[in-house]
Amino acid sequence: MTAFQELVAFQRETEALASIAERLGWDQETVMPRGAAEQRAEETAALESVLHARRTDPRIEDWLARAEAETPFEARFLDLAGRSYNRNTRVPARLATELARLTSLSQGIWAEARAEENPAAFVPVLKQVLALKREEAECLADGDLYDALLDDYEPGATHRSLGAMFDRMRPRLVALRERVLGAEFRPPVLDQVFPEAAQLRLARICASAFGYDWSCGRLDIAVHPFSSGSGRDVRITTRVVESDPFNCLYSTIHETGHACYELGIDEEYAFTPMGHGVSMGVHESQSRIFENQIGRSAAFTGWLYQRMTEAFGDFGICTPEAFHACVNRVTPGFIRTEADELHYNLHIMMRFDLERDLIAGRLAVDDLEEAWNARFEQDFGVAVPTPSQGFLQDVHWAVGLFGYFPTYALGNVYAGCLHQTLRAALPDLDASLAGGSARPATEWLRESLHRHGGLRPPVETIEAACGFAPTEGPLLDYLEAKFGAIYGL
């Protein structure tokens, strides 16, 4: 075999083992018995030790030096393999293994602390996680520590570039929010019990409407909804609040967006560095365009209104138009995953600033809850009532995902660009949505973006799909037009 062929064969085995590790994580968050937490931590650490050894195998350096690329696929393969090898060889095996063990334990501690409204139970382990992530950043950084962590989720992005984008977005978002909250119109709200079983049945119908392939996936319950897997095994999760069916339905649609991205990647890329979504920002663009621009559109909510009536009977909203306003109701709530489209990016900007301060050492974990509450009241005008509605609500810091949060807002920006292009390409899309099928949109995204996987860097991926460089303008224009119409501005 050539050096390139040897590298490909080795990489396929590493990717397969990484898939097994991901499946352990899915199991832990869905069906694993609570008493197995410590055992799972040891299993996760052992597998991470094996993966780290493979990812830092000296033969990779030799194969990279001798391999010659003859196609764009091979060139990108070598680029990503080299990037992975460089990053992994900078992190000691001890640190990689300890991070895997600790974050597995920390996840369970966070879940219990959140359920019991007990920050004191979580703070000590968060201190340990933060210390290890700062140590990891010091190993990886050529400059800013936060940028070194961000690069794992959005290669090429920096805290300065994202901060500048957020600074451009904030004034228009805040101004629109103030106009909406000051409007006379008030959308109706749901005020009854929606049984769990009926919600889950409808959630499956919604996932099917977007083309989710049930032969390659499944829907389960999790504390924090997520999608897991790649290739031909991509699973989604949701959560159920019986007073709020939108929590379940739109979490499901959101995760279906992630899943359809992974399922749509060219099978030729399976078990290669290109066989996954290229970045979390691009990944989030798929979940957010499914959830918001398509799933909360007037055409789709008109169809969903009929399905809600069939599932729950008379639930107090009399027209599709009132239901559309209800789905898109703007209110300064506490929970990021339940936030409306106007407030969502403000949630992310707050977390972005707080975690940068944590990594830089400007904010101590002991002071995090107080800093969170003060910033939240400043940005949203309401006081945080409980820790689970404050800094304990998200799992990300518990499992060491520092640098992940800003990719959510970046995903919204990417989704705005994609939606503008998609609507121009599919002028009759609303007719399909009104009939309960988002498949034309999914198919357009599959052809324009999904199938390419990690073949291009993130910004190039969006630019190739849209025909222009990504910018926040289309997202802000869309929000102003949509909410201006709903609220009569």
UniProtKB/TrEMBL annotation:
It catalyses: Release of a C-terminal amino acid with broad specificity, except for -Pro. The keyword Protease applies. CDD domains: M32_Taq. Coiled coil: none annotated. Zn(2+) binds at residues 254, 258, 284. Its EC number is 3.4.17.19. Binds 1 zinc ion per subunit. It holds the Pfam family Peptidase_M32. GO terms for biological process: proteolysis. Keywords: Carboxypeptidase, Hydrolase, Metal-binding, Metalloprotease, Protease, Zinc. One of its GO terms (molecular function) is metal ion binding. Its cofactor is Zn(2+). The active site is at residue 255. Belongs to the peptidase M32 family. Broad specificity carboxypetidase that releases amino acids sequentially from the C-terminus, including neutral, aromatic, polar and basic residues. This is Metal-dependent carboxypeptidase. It comes from Paenirhodobacter hankyongi.
